Amino acid sequence: MEESKVPLPTLERLATYLRYLNESTNRDEVTISSARMEEATGIHAAQFRKDLSYFGEFGQPGIGYKADELRQRIAAILKVEDTQPVILIGAGNLGSALLGYAGLPQHNFPIVGVFDNNANKIGYKLWNRTIEDIADLKAINRELKSQIAIVCVPNAAAQKVADQLVDAGIRVILNFAPTVLRVPERVFVRNVCFVQELMVLSFFLSPGLQAGD
Amino acid sequence: MEESKVPLPTLERLATYLRYLNESTNRDEVTISSARMEEATGIHAAQFRKDLSYFGEFGQPGIGYKADELRQRIAAILKVEDTQPVILIGAGNLGSALLGYAGLPQHNFPIVGVFDNNANKIGYKLWNRTIEDIADLKAINRELKSQIAIVCVPNAAAQKVADQLVDAGIRVILNFAPTVLRVPERVFVRNVCFVQELMVLSFFLSPGLQAGD
DNA sequence: TAGATTGTTAATCGATTAACAATC
DNA sequence: TAGATTGTTAATCGATTAACAATC
User: Is pLDDT of B73 > 90?
Assistant: First the structure.
């Protein structure tokens, strides 16, 4: 399982397959073929088989894949069979929305700690969870043992927070601040930027046209 | 400007360049070279020049790019020089957070309408904006003339909402529901899925290790 | 002019798709 | 067995990077 040679797009698609297999409405499918997966996710059947091939043999020629086994194996690859505790930095609007989002614990990503640097927030509760002082991050995470952080702080604070997270033993960061975070090579960052997504979409609008034209 | 042959990764990077150029803290740079842009964004200098080359000549050999002119030209390419009104579907936690996010209007994407199907929300205000009935979407958007929609509804409702959006003249959709939306070819969709991002990151964790080990 | 940096071409790299022998 | 579908190899496609003549 030479992880270093797995393409990133493959990992992203694995997550898509897993999300599909996890959906309760699909739990009645006992076996699933690559053609069926293409139908469900829009990802080419050959691509699906190729993606899996990085990790061994999964299916039965002539039959397909046992849905439940496939789900378990992809979950194992992505290391989400067991709960992965997540900490959240930044108790603003977005942080609050994420804390209230049931999809995270449902997919084995419970938020186990919330941190902020704002004295008006520290000690108060958000969704029934006490907001901790970011200064105590390292000490508290010695207990929480989280390796995953979600960063929802303003741009200006993001780099400092990233440094603190690395110091506290965090290994991967989901960053909502629209900044390039500088972290050691061993730490992985993924950025989500709403404005950037809208800019890309905006390109596809026809110039000068408005809805209804 | 053969739009159809511009690679999607190029558009995503253009948005990154623009975000950098838009940052107030960088407004003192009068000219900027591709090497400087690499430093700032992590994107290879050759890649930067190649990306721009799809849209004509921008810079001065030996000197670089005039920062302000570059900003304007990229903004024009992405069609964000002028305000692009956006409508928001789903007045839940995430929708509320997006509505309160100052970054959207700051980048010329003001949210001009909010819709929901929940009778307990319709008519009430969120961030001082009245929540409209999704049933009135088409009629109201005849006035709003928005071409961009952000979808923050539960999975089960997403496809129906997408159909209504298409019917109301929406051309591009930023979808936060973890479902594959079926839309006509002329409509563009980008998906943002928090759980998927976390799954990809989770892959990079070492098995069995915890923070502090 | 000399030094710097662009815009573009060509080379490399990597990812997607097609095809098909293996096999349930 | 015949039909279906996998896993993998090879072919295609596309994107990134290197190199350099053009030029400010």
Answer: yes
Q: Is residue B191 part of a domain?
A: yes
B142: Cβ contacts below 8 Å, ≥ 6 apart: A211, A212
Cα Rg for chain B, rounded, in angstroms?
A: 20
Residues of A in contact with B109 (CB under 8 A): 195, 198, 202
Q: What is the pTM of this model?
A: 0.93
Q: Choose one of B47, B77, B107: the last residue of a domain.
A: B77
Strand D contact at CB of residue A52, distance < 7 A: yes
Average pLDDT over residues A125-135: 97
Question: Percentage of residues in chain A with pLDDT exceeding 90?
Answer: 91
Task: List the B33 CA – C11 C1' distance (angstroms).
Answer: 25
B211 domain residue, yes or no: no
| pLDDT per position as a tens digit, A150-172 | 999 999 999 999 999 999 999 99
Residue of least CA–C1' distance to D4: A62
CB atoms within 10 A of CB A77: 22
The answer to whether strand D lies under 7 Å from the CB of residue B12 is no
Q: Are residues B192 and B94 in the same domain?
A: yes
Nearest CB partner across the interface for A97, out of B96, B109, B198: B96
